[in-house]
Amino acid sequence: MNLMMTILLTTLIPLILITFNHLAPKTSPDMEKLSPYECGFSPPENARLPLSIQFFLIAIFFLLFDLEIALLLPVPWALNTSMTTTWMLLLIFLLTLGLWYEWSQGALDWTK
C-alpha cells in the first residue's frame, strides 16, 4: 500500500505540473524586460563584457579549498589507521605545494 501510494504520487505530481505548465498562458517578454537592470537606468556599456581571468582563478581556488575541507572533514573519525593519516598529509602537502607554486608565479597578485 505504501509503495503504491509513493509511486502514484511521484507520477501524478509531475504530470499535474506539466499539464498546468502547458495550460498556462504563454508570455512574450518585451525588450525592456530583456535588458539588464542597472539601478533604474540604462547601462552605459555592454553588460556582456568578459571578466578578468583573476576572478576565475580565485573562484577555482575557492572551489579547490572548499573541496579540500569536504575531504578532510571525516578525517577525525577515521584516524584509526596510519593509511588515513598518510593520505590526509599527502593531500595537505599537495595543496600547499600547489598554492606555493601559484603564489611564487604571481598568479595571486591582483596588480601587475
UniProtKB/TrEMBL annotation:
It is a multi-pass membrane protein. The keyword Lipid biosynthesis does not apply. The chain crosses the membrane at residues 51-73, 85-103. It is found in: Mitochondrion membrane. InterPro entries: NADH_UbQ/plastoQ_OxRdtase_su3, NDAH_ubi_oxred_su3_sf. One of its GO terms (molecular function) is NADH dehydrogenase (ubiquinone) activity. Its EC number is 7.1.1.2. It holds the Pfam family Oxidored_q4. Keywords: Electron transport, Membrane, Mitochondrion, NAD, Respiratory chain, Translocase, Transmembrane, Transmembrane helix, Transport, Ubiquinone. GO terms for cellular component: mitochondrial membrane; NADH dehydrogenase complex. It comes from the Eukaryota. It catalyses: a ubiquinone + NADH + 5 H(+)(in) = a ubiquinol + NAD(+) + 4 H(+)(out). Core subunit of the mitochondrial membrane respiratory chain NADH dehydrogenase (Complex I) which catalyzes electron transfer from NADH through the respiratory chain, using ubiquinone as an electron acceptor. Essential for the catalytic activity of complex I. Belongs to the complex I subunit 3 family. PANTHER family: NADH-UBIQUINONE OXIDOREDUCTASE CHAIN 3. This is NADH-ubiquinone oxidoreductase chain 3. It comes from Phrynocephalus axillaris (toad-headed agama).
